[in-house]
């Protein structure tokens, strides 16, 4: 083999190893958990198509929005950490657990590899 061909083979092998390593990294470093629950009325009926705002734990910014399905259920994968939940009930909103005051909202902690269930009842 020529020196040029050996150099190209070595470069190809190194590139392949780097690519394989980068594919494995996200799975090993995902650090996510699941936040799920059901939003219901005081009589237990589902609150469908209600927007839920997931705020970072200090309340400084919205992390994401999602909507309840027809059964009032919601589910989202989130990085580990603390979050506040705001439920929009089409005519206003509320914070979890069952308060209109953000200062009274609970910080829910999502843990890597775990599912946290937060069921909420409409005020």
Automatic annotation (TrEMBL):
Residues making up the signal peptide according to the UniProt record: 1-19
SUPFAM superfamilies on file: Starch-binding domain-like
UniProt entry keywords in alphabetical sequence: Signal
Keyword Signal: yes
Listed GO MF terms: carbohydrate binding
Name of the protein in its database record: Carboxypeptidase family protein
Source species of the chain: Actinoplanes italicus
């Amino acid at each position: 083999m020529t020196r040029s061909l050996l150099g190209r083979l070595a470069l190809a092998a190194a590139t392949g190893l780097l690519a394989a390593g980068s594919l494995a990294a996200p799975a090993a470093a995902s650090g996510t958990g699941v936040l799920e629950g059901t939003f219901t009325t005081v009589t237990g009926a589902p609150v469908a198509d209600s927007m839920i705002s997931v705020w970072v734990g200090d309340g400084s910014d919205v992390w994401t929005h999602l909507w309840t399905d027809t059964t009032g259920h919601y589910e989202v994968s989130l990085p580990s950490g603390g979050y506040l939940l705001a439920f929009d009930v089409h005519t206003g909103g509320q914070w979890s657990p069952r308060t209109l005051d953000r200062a009274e909202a609970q910080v829910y902690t999502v843990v890597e590899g775990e599912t946290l269930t937060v069921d909420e009842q409409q005020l």
